[in-house]
Amino acid sequence: MSNLGTNDAIFNVSEPSFRQTQTAFLQQLRQKHPNARIYxxxxxxxxxxxxxxxxxxxxxxxGDTNIRYVDTTGWLTAGDYQTDxxxxxxxxxxxxxNLLAPVLAQ
Length: 106
What we know:
Elements (H helix, E strand, L loop, with lengths): L5 H5 L4 H18 L5 E4 L7 H13 L5 E4 L19 H16 L1
Parallel strand pairs: 1-2
């Protein structure tokens, strides 16, 4: 499970740089765990979402058939975050768990 991008956006990592790093990370993850099913989640706030999805597509194009992009659009609302506005609170985490469980069961 991977959910990256929000901190990178806050620290002004460019989208091309993020995509390159994300793609390399996924490649390394696959090399270390060749049989694992990898789920890459859209960052909940949407930061670098397009680049995250493209990194997954890059891996699929490279022949990785056991990786999946999980679109989390609409999973959380403003009240589901801690006071920092970035990290899910307990209610948000429960929502994520409830929505993610069926995805993982597929």
